Amino acid sequence: MYTLVRELLFKLSPETSHELSVDLIGAGGRLGLNGLLSKTPASLPVKVMGLEFPNPVGLAAGLDKNGDAIDGFAQLGFGFIEIGTVTPRAQPGNPKPRLFRLPEAEAIINRMGFNNLGVDHLLARVQAARFKGVLGINIGKNFDTPVERAVDDYLLCLDKVYAHASYVTVNVSSPNTPGLRSLQFGDSLKQLLEALRQRQEDLARQHGKRVPLAIKIAPDMSDEETVQVAAALLDAGMDAVIATNTTLGRDGVKGLEFADEAGGLSGAPVRDKSTHIVRVLAGELAGRLPIIAVGGITEGKHAAEKIAAGASLVQIYSGFIYKGPALIREAVDAIAAARG
Ligand SMILES: Cc1cc2nc3c(=O)[nH]c(=O)nc-3n(C[C@H](O)[C@H](O)[C@H](O)COP(=O)(O)O)c2cc1C
Predict the structure, then answer these.
(1) How far apart are CA 328 and CA 271, in angstroms?
(2) Does the active-site annotation cover 38?
(3) Residue 84 CA, closest ligand 1 atom number
(4) How far apart (Å, rounded) are the C-alpha atoms in residues 99 and 338?
């Protein structure tokens, strides 16, 4: 069934088909129809970051940037939903075209640049949603906020979303906002994490609940850099790490149409790079901090590989575009089978 839908969607430009899909999933959600599109995944409850997940397969950030289709995505069977990246103010993102499909490689290249309607719009959508499951809100900085003042944007978003999120993801790994990835290293990372952790404590007192803070990192890191990030996360007392965002590398797509477009590459070609980061992180973190693995899951078995590499949860984006909602159940089943 999805093969047919995909054939129609892939006739449209990637961005038009993206917008249409989110609209349709949102509309289906409001009508309560999306459960009909895919068989409900098996129940595979897990507890991570103190939160109860009905299954460990989530929607990755960037598909529902504005929180417009939360109920719709939830009805497809995801164990959790991450919306955003959201910035303090609405911004248009980069000029179009900025989204490219590389179907031969089951890959996508994007340089969207955090196009979103701003944190207030997102919060209104969250409040209108019926969803009661685990909702992650992924926060970033506006493109015109100097990177030295990035912390102000993250704090502003954290203040606003805190009461409405099950967990908050700090995105320092998009390749499409100049300077953003520099926040993953050294003193910039330490200062950012310290400021966010301090604010998390203040907000926890104020709201009487502790909302976990995760950080999302890039796959384009050496093992040494990954080890340093792991140490900084433990030092700061973060609650989770999401590995990974898209890659600037072009391994696995060379010679294909659009391979030389600027932006982040996702889907099958990022899989091994991303899983390698998970493995290195898991070795360093030794269970002290949970890992949410994302990158290149296009079949159920890839989700099980991520869990075997040390992840507690997984997320999918590009695989969902290529395989449709059936991939959610396939991933849950593969993880359950690997557990035995
Ligand atoms: C079009 C597109 C937009 C994305 N936007 C975001 C975003 O706003 N924030 C974010 O943290 N990740 C974003 N991502 C990255 C995904 O969440 C995910 O980390 C990455 O694509 C690797 O997973 P995948 O191979 O399953 O796609 C985006 C990915 C794509 C393809």
Answers:
(1) 17
(2) no
(3) 8
(4) 35
d(CA 186, CA 232): 8
Domains of the chain: 2-339 (3.20.20.70)
Catalytic residue among 174, 274, 312, 318: 174
Q: Is the peptide bond before 244 cis (omega within 30 degrees of 0)?
A: yes
Tokens representing 318 are: 């590009």
Structure tokens at 27: 């509309």
| Pairing relationship of beta strands 240-243 and 213-217 according to DSSP bridges | parallel
pTM: 0.98
Contact 100, 265 (CB under 8 A): no
Angle at which helices 271-285 and 223-236 cross, to 10°: 50
Q: Which residues of the chain have pLDDT under 50?
A: none
Chain centroid to CA 31? 26
Q: Alpha-carbon distance 180 to 114, whole Å?
A: 11
116 phi and psi angles, rounded to 5 deg: -165, 165
Q: What is the pLDDT of residue 130?
A: 97
**Residue 150: strand, helix, or coil:** helix
CA distance 34 to 97: 30
Using DSSP's 3-state secondary structure scheme, residue 336 falls into: helix
* Residues 6+ away with beta carbon under 8 Å from 189: 172, 183, 229, 232
Nearest CA owner, ligand 1 atom 19: 245
**What was the pLDDT predicted at 38?**
82
Helical H runs in the chain? 2-9, 14-31, 70-75, 119-128, 150-161, 186-207, 223-236, 271-285, 300-308, 318-323, 326-339
Residue bearing the CA closest to ligand 1, atom 7: 62
Instruction: Identify the pLDDT of residue 333.
Output: 98
The pLDDT value recorded for residue 12 is: 96
